[in-house]
Design brief:
185 residues, alpha+beta, lipopolysaccharide transport protein A fold, six-stranded antiparallel barrel, 12 strands, globular, LPS export ABC transporter periplasmic protein LptC, lipopolysaccharide transmembrane transporter activity, LptC, LipoPS_assembly_LptC-rel
Length: 185
C-alpha cells in the first residue's frame, strides 16, 4: 500500500519546479521593461573634442558630461551640464560659444543651445539669449527668443528673433529696439 505523502510530495515538487522554471523567462521580460528605452548608449565625463577638416582645426568642444542616444529612433547627443565651444573660420579667427545645456540631433545637424547662451566673436561682438539653434551645415545661428547683441562699447541692441552667420558678418534681427525698451530681456 502506497501512502498519499509518497505520491503528494513528488507531485507538489514537480508542479513547483515547473512553476519556477516557467517564471524565469517572464522574469527576464520584466527586467527588460524596467530598462528605459531612452537610456544612453554611451556616457562620457570631462570631454575635450577637436573637430578637424583637411588638417585644420574647425572646432573644439569642451563639456563636463556627454550622453549618446544614438540608439533612439531619432538619434541625438546631449550635454546636460553645458558646453564651451571654440569655432575657427578659414582665416583662423575664433568665435566662442557657451551654454548651460546643449543637444545635437544627428539626422538634422542642428544644435540646440539653452540657458545663458553667449556667443563672443574674436572682434568683440557678443550675442546673449536663453535659447539659440546652430545649423552646422549652413554655419548659421537662429532663434525666436529675445536677444541682446553688443557690437562694441555702448553699441547694444535688443531683438526678438535673430539669425546670423557664424562670424556675425551677416546679421538679421526681426525687431530691433533700444536699450530702454528691453525690460523683458
Amino acid at each position: 500500500m502506497i501512502s498519499t505523502s509518497k505520491i503528494l510530495f513528488p507531485a507538489v515538487f514537480i508542479v513547483l519546479a515547473g512553476f519556477l522554471f516557467s517564471c524565469e523567462s517572464n522574469f527576464k521580460d520584466v527586467q527588460k521593461i524596467n530598462v528605459s528605452t531612452y537610456a544612453p548608449i554611451g556616457e562620457a565625463d570631462t570631454i575635450n573634442l577637436k573637430y578637424t577638416d583637411s588638417g585644420k582645426i574647425k572646432a573644439i568642444l569642451v563639456s563636463p558630461k556627454m550622453l549618446d542616444f544614438s540608439n533612439a529612433a531619432f538619434p541625438y547627443t546631449e550635454f546636460p551640464k553645458g558646453i564651451d565651444v571654440t569655432l575657427y573660420d578659414n582665416g583662423g579667427k575664433k568665435s566662442f560659444v557657451r551654454s548651460d545645456y546643449a543637444i545635437t540631433y544627428k539626422g538634422t545637424d542642428i544644435i540646440d543651445l539653452q540657458g545663458n547662451v553667449k556667443i563672443t566673436s574674436e572682434d568683440g561682438k557678443i550675442l546673449e539669449t536663453t535659447q539659440l539653434y546652430y545649423d552646422q551645415k549652413r554655419e548659421w545661428f537662429f532663434t525666436e527668443k529675445k536677444c541682446k547683441l553688443t557690437l562694441g562699447p555702448g553699441n547694444e541692441f535688443y531683438t526678438k528673433g535673430f539669425d546670423a552667420s557664424r562670424d556675425f558678418k551677416d546679421i538679421n534681427g526681426q525687431v530691433f529696439f533700444g536699450e530702454g525698451q528691453a525690460n523683458d530681456f
